[in-house]
Design brief:
single chain, mainly alpha, 4 helices, 54% helix
């Protein structure tokens, strides 16, 4: 397994990393490894067709035009 050394890591960043690791009940090394894995993992590509109907349960029985009017009125 490879080893990664990080030089010149700002103290403030290290403190945040340490606190995050503690919240996750991990060592700092484990937390960094998990963060890197999460960031570098390829995300699933979703087509616009796959999103069709998303949220339809929320909008069932709702007047979309009235909702838009209320939203726009709240901007003032």
């Amino acid at each position: 397994m490879a080893t990664l050394n990080i030089k010149n890591l700002p103290d403030s960043l290290y403190r945040k990393l340490k606190a995050r690791a503690k919240r996750q009940r991990r060592s700092i090394a484990q937390e960094v490894t998990q963060m890197l894995a999460d960031m570098l993992e390829e995300s699933e590509v979703v087509s616009i067709q796959a999103l069709r109907g998303l949220g339809k349960e929320y909008w069932r029985g709702q007047d979309a035009a009235a909702h838009v009017r209320r939203e726009r009125a709240s901007w003032d």
